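Comment thread on ticket #2218

A.B. wrote:
> Attaching the input chain for the structure job we discussed in standup.
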Amino acid sequence: MAGQSKYPEEFRRQAAALVLDSGRTIRDVGRELGVNHETLHNWVDRMRQDRDGGRSNDLAVDERAELMRLRR
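C.D. wrote:
> Ran it. Output below, let me know if you need it in another format.
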């Protein structure tokens, strides 16, 4: 089980939103805020999923096959 984060939830949300809404890199924002880029990456991934309604950004097998068919 994961321990309690040393960063408040609101800080994590704002940091992730800064990456997604500003177009800046995770490393750049992480450096500015003093947060490890891998930690920030996790927050950004979680926010992306929340914004996408819980859907993963990965294509399903059938969607990938259809995309490959259309590209040909």
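A.B. wrote:
> Thanks. Noting for the ticket: The chain has a mean pLDDT of 86.
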